[in-house]
Amino acid sequence: MLFRSPWNDEDIKQSVRDGLKQFELEFENRQLTAELIQKNQELEHFNARLEEAVQQRTRELQLKVKELAGKDRIAQHMLSVHSLEETLKLVLQVVSEIIEMEAAVVYLMAEGQPKAAAAVDYAGRILQPNDVLKIQPTPLHIEAFARVSETRQPVNVEHTDGSGIAPFAVAPIVRGDSVLGLIEVASPRTREAISTDELGVVASFALQAAMAISDAQIHSNMNSWKGEIAAVLKDWDL
User: Fold this and answer.
1) Are 194 and 168 in contact (CB under 8 A)?
2) Which of 86, 107, 109, 111 is the most buried (most CB within 10 A)?
3) What H or E segment, with its residue span, contains residue 36?
């Protein structure tokens, strides 16, 4: 009598094949799902980088438009004769409004040292001369002023931790071979550092402002000379 197994070998083989096929399909499905998740993550990262790049480019273009508007204001100002006080006021207004700084100070060289000549506060108000005279640079500012005067390049002081001083930037006002003065900008309330792009705009304004300031100084000196000559002629009864 032959022994007959209670199962069919072919059925078992088919069941094993079906099981292997199911395992392969599930494994392949898990792989595809993992790849899809990875691709979606990569797409999300790409979209985030693209959005950031678009926002950055938009900020750059907006700043460039503001810069051109500021330069146009200074250029229009130079078409007619203005006093040094009026010129400094315009420069401060342009700097504080265009790049939205909370504070800005123009220093002019006096006996080889920068002295505060005009300033604007966080409300956009031009300080009175007596208040300007009270502005005393800190050792950190004096160090930055020296670097700018020596290199004739703008300096961005971003790290002022522990000093109680808000981050600030300084750009030189240069005409020919002479450093006429410096422009300092800062945001004392928000204590935000000045960006590289913003510092570039300040430096650009300073370069253009140098011509306006130089012209105003020459005009001021001419008026002073005229007054002195007139006084001398009067003394001589001429």
Assistant:
1) yes
2) 107
3) helix 9-77
Name the residue type at position 42.
E
Tell me the one-letter amino acid at 129: P
Return phi, psi of residue 124, to 5°: 80, 15
- What three-state secondary structure class fits 161? coil
CA-angle at 180, arms to 156 and 196, nearest 5°: 20
Cα–Cα dist 221/238, whole Å: 23
Torsions phi, psi of 196, nearest 5?
A: -60, -40
How wide is the angle at C-alpha 16 spanned by C-alphas 12 and 21, nearest 5°?
145
For 147, how many CA atoms within 13 A lie in the half-sphere containing its CB?
A: 14
pLDDT digit string (tens) for 87-137? 888 888 888 887 778 889 999 988 888 999 999 887 778 899 899 989 989
**Helices 9-77 + 84-98 axis angle, to 10:** 170
Phi, psi (5° rounding) for residue 179?
Answer: -95, 105
Q: Is the dihedral of CA 31, 32, 37, 43 positive or negative?
A: positive
The tokens describing 71, both together, are 């330069």
